[in-house]
Amino acid sequence: MDYAAKIEKDKDMGYVVSFPDLPNVNALGETREEAIKQAKDALDGAMECDLDMGYSFVYPKTMPDANKNLVAIQLSPRIEVAYKIFEARRGKTKAEVAKAAGFTPQAYQRFETPKGTPTVETLYKIAAALGKKLEIKLS
User: Fold this and answer.
1) Which residues contact residue 119 at a Cβ distance below 8 angstroms, ignoring those fewer than 6 apart?
2) If both were cysteines, with which of 1, 17, 44, 122 could 39 make a disulfide (CB 3.0 to 4.6 Å apart)?
3) pTM
4) Cα(34)–Cα(32) distance, rounded to whole angstroms?
């Protein structure tokens, strides 16, 4: 999942990156390339922190557009997957989902963190336990 990031040259700070859809996420770099790398780290860090805090996922609305100096910064897939599992569980406890999927609560817990890396088969089990259908799409 890509988020649009605006890169602007600042005479004092180098390159400044901001995200229109995430106003509290910013990054700096001496070069454009360094600023983009820092923006990726800032995006991942902010979204992982929001997940830890239990905040709702903020889907990108602004599209990257070279004419507007908006570049695409990709959210780490491990964070996106953890967030989607977390969001899909709303209204159910982790213990309920774990039991329905055949996992211990401790094992299930890690799938709602970016440190967990569930297999596709595990994702199917979690989706079924949530009464959802897992769809895999390459685009």
Assistant:
1) none
2) 17
3) 0.87
4) 6
Residue with tokens 């897992």: 134
Reduced to 3 states, what is the DSSP secondary structure of residue 120? Answer: helix
Q: Which distant-in-sequence residues (6+ apart) come within 8 Å of 35 by Cβ?
A: 7, 14, 15, 16, 17, 27, 28, 29
CA quadruple 34, 3, 87, 107: dihedral sign: negative
Tokens 């897939």 -> residue: 77
Q: Is the pLDDT of residue 139 over 80?
A: no
Of 41 and 114, the structure prediction assigns the larger pLDDT to: 41
Specify whether the CB–CB gap between 130 and 92 falls below 8 A: yes
pLDDT category of residue 137 using cuts at 50, 70 and 90: confident
User: Residue 96 is encoded by which pair of tokens?
Assistant: 């309920």
Both tokens assigned to 21: 């859809």
The DSSP annotation for 30-84 comes to SSHHHHHHHHHHHHHHHHHHHHHHTPPP----SPPBGGGTEEEEEPPHHHHHHHH
